[in-house]
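Exercise 7.
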Amino acid sequence: MRKIVLIFVAIVLLGQSAWADRPMSPDERRDRVEAVIIGKFANELELTPNDAEKFYPRLRQFRMETEEMQRELTNARSRLDELSVQNSSGTKDELKALITRTKDLQTEILEKRELLLTDLAEFLTPQQVSRCAILLDDIPRRIRQFMDERGGAGGPPPKRPEGRRPRQAR
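Solution. The predicted structure, written as tokens, is:
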């Protein structure tokens, strides 16, 4: 079954690469990212067919529940980055609100992550759950990397404030 899942993901990716010259819609990009993530989890966790049936809906639900929070967290971090530049137009109140919002979003995402991992521990081995935790931490970086390699949303890369360098991948 693992081979079937990997073959399916490969076919989807190869089929989509034929359309690489045309810009992808947001839904197409989301589907492609989802296929890459599923392939990565299938390969790394070595799921049985029964486990995969239980796993993927839970992962998909987690991603749906946290996608907007991740986006908002990225925006808040970008604004914090902008405020870190001298001559910034930010206020102390804005800074305090951004710090609080960032903390709240991180806490909410971590709580949802904990619920997912606890749920997965009901049918996956401790090793699989541990590996899943590591992969979950790596998803945002891999998505950014995937989007950067593919030209993001088809537009120019985001602008950084003067004098600031992009953050390095961990």
